[in-house]
Amino acid sequence: QVQLVESGGGSVQAGGSLRLSCTASGYSLNDNCMGWFRQVPGKEREGVAILYTGGGHTRYADSVRGRFTISEDNANNGVHLQMNNLTPEDTAMYYCATVNVRPGHWLDCITARPWGNGAYIYADWGQGTQVTVSS
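Given the sequence above, the corresponding structure tokens read:
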């Protein structure tokens, strides 16, 4: 059974930074995918950043590219999300999620739902960590 635990959320002022962490148990991050998503009440969950460890491929939403960085946390079988230059529009509940893909198939990560519309699904989710950015 996969368990994901997020941490690192909080309240910051615009322009500030936060570092989110996600630790996975019951899941192997080797040659696999982990992603960060966020959701605001009343809106659909949106992808923020995803990482495929087999080769270190990453992909970011246009709204966060250049400000957020996803990286692997080998020591804790998880990932970090470094968020810089935060804006009020980044306020949301942030979730990490995993999907099991075919080894070597990076495209499976970026087509998996809800990041894409492919056959694979980010099926395991953490409880989320709240990020609030004030102006």
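Residues 79 and 85 are 20 Å apart (CA to CA). Try to locate this feature in the token string yourself.
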